[in-house]
Design brief:
single chain; mainly beta; Phosphorylase Kinase, domain 1; Transferase(Phosphotransferase), domain 1; Methylamine Dehydrogenase, Chain H; 7-stranded antiparallel β-sheet; globular
Amino acid sequence: MPVTPGARIGPYEVGVLVGAGGMGEVYRARDARLGRDVAVKVLPASFSDDQDRLRRFELEARAASALNHPNILTIHDIGIQEGVPYVVSELLEGATLRERLGGKSLSQRKAVDYAVQMSRGLAAAHDKGIVHRDLKPDNLFVTPDGRVKILDFGLAKLMRTDRQADTERSTETGRTDAGTVLGTAGYMSPEQVRGQATDHRSDLFSLGAVLYEMLSGRRAFKGDTGVQTMNAILTEDPPELATLNPTLSPGLERIVRRCLEKDPAHRFRSAHDLAFALEALSGSETSAASAAAAARPSGRRRAQAALAAFALVAFGGAVFYTGRRTAEPSLPSFQRLTFRRGAVMSARYAADGQTVVYAASWDGDPLLRLFSTRVEGPESTRLDLPDASLLGVSRTGELALALNHPLVPLWQGGTLARVPLAGGTPRAVLDDVREADWSPDGSEFAVVRNVGGRSRLEFPIGKTLFEDVWIWNPRVSPDGNRVAFRHGVSALGMESSVAVVDRTGKKSELSDGWTWSRGLAWAPAGNEVWFTARRAGPMTQELWAVALSGKPRLVMRLPSWTVIQDIAPDGRVLLTHGTFRIAATCLPPGADHERSVSWFEASKVQDLSSNGRMLLFSEEGAGEKGSLYVMNTTDTAAPIRLGEAWFGAALSPNGRWAAVRHAREIVLLPTGAGEPRRLDLSGVTPIANRWFRDGKRCALFGHQPGHGSRTYSLDIEGGRLQPIGPDGGLCLWPSPDGRELLCADAGGADVGGGIMRKWTVYSLERREGRPAPGLEAGEQVLAWATDGAAYIRPGAPERPEIYRVDLQTGRRTLWRRIAFVDPAGLVGLEFVLVAPEAGAYCYTAWWNLFDLYQVKGLE
């Protein structure tokens, strides 16, 4: 198919040629429909001669287009014109990694940064079952701001049938070695060279080869011919990086060597593990030169070296590293104890110190099960006990369990029960207990209970020592005289403090100002309390120890999500590490399956247009204050950042404005061209808001000192605020014609999620309400649709059903059942948005993918 500037490929107007190679030609093109420039790759004409290849091209290109990740080239469209396939993607500015290298090495910092980004992109693809198979510097693109994009994802496999062993080349601006067999010589894994079956671990080998080249300036495997290069991959190891670059850290060389193992089973288990190791190493391990210059290691340096050892935990067992030609002391070793896909929620050492008991939800199981494992072996045994949450293990061999305790919500409790570890029938002790711990002699419990919308700490049961909005992790001191705990006002622990209280109720605040804190345990001597928390930043976690005097010290800086679970009398520590992800997913209009629309690590849906095509979402992983984005749910284009905001935004009916809540104002952010507008609320603090269908007003629920909380009508043009609805009522759901409001008694309820007690339909003309038939206490209203029905879901976060309720008759029918793409580690839904007329929905869910580790040698 001849392509010239000005020609049209599908709906795209072709511009200049920007690249060419064995896998086709790439042109800059214009998408006039959306007013954006794109890249159009016209694939080789040989495709048109093979109908099976055309069919596989479409299937795999569609799979690749489902990848929505900042480090993967976004696929917008695919098509066939005159029998020749083409792929439309985002247009990138910058250069390939091959061009950036130019035969030279990169700094360690930059090489690790690039490798972390590659690992994240690979992990996102591997999670969806897509393997690249041709990762190399030519297929890696670096934008001017340092963002790495993986190109041709899913296409490398398409370029050849399983029986072919040809020398086709990927699209590139540079030269590719001849002799390619299901990959590119110099970057193929040994199994690719042999023509054996490959999986995601082949990509890890290729990434290791790329990382080696970034650090050394030379290829890991290089021969005079493609055959010699492939023979080197099978039989030789590349030269030691230390001989090529003496300033590189030993930990980084270990990571590269692990990637380049000949046997796939000896490489990293996953790209997630590789990213974890690289993140831990980044900015933490000193170079060999600086290590040699240091005299005696400080406590901080030992913590940083411990982090480097922790990075090597993905190697599959305990790691012991003493440094290279230095006087470093022995560093902590890390041993992985669990190996299934899911979430370990709590874990404790048993009295013998060699048995670990834990509660986990594995492989999509929605229930917590109890398991035990021995620290000397990898096998876990399911205990013959009811499904429950583990709260504690006594020195006398009894378990404290929470029966009927859901994974979420965090605020619900269960029935405290005790049962011997050896088995038996649990004996109920106390209802509505969220957390508990044993006294040292196993005769008493410290418990956290929900009482009147607050948390109450009792020790022993019945004796109140402290109350706050939230209390977590009660742990009784080794001498039995104090209880350590975390407390705060945020259900998620985003702002919390660490404190101790003695049996008389005297509380001492040890340390405050922590964000995203999790886990707590006493040091064996009883002189410190250890906990995991963040000071700032979405990608860091730290293990801290605080003395009873209030003096804190950093034990170890950790990558991503790590939670301390327990400390043994000899100082061994139980940690859970993994991915805690708040992810957004949509079923777009006309689609038959859901697709992920998450951007960074904490994507929360905010509002969905009535046609289901425009989604407003916030991202807590983007900047200190988070960011607000808008995106099209029906294509894979990157979202558009509107401004700073963690939560509290509503989309106008015409899609032009996002109404964002701030301290005592509403800020209107344009979703396209335009300037932000600020609407002063005359002293009212906004809590929640929704637009009327006419786009001229917002229903706003807010609080004003001296007047309490109620609902207002906010005029968008004039900025006038007028009370509407019953006093104190939350009326955030205007009818389609704007004449009525769906209102609820909001007392003590979660107004942000719409979970209420008593529902009424309030007439703005008559200023009176009538019962809302069919709506029950504790349910969440999602929308009031044009057909006169309310769309709701049960209040329990783990329930996936969405119902349609006729507000005239109260008749209820099932509308949708959310189908989770990957249920492993799922702990529940947080927000659900619906566009009933379009048959679309979006939601935010929480995933915990955690494994259990034992750590020796922490101080």
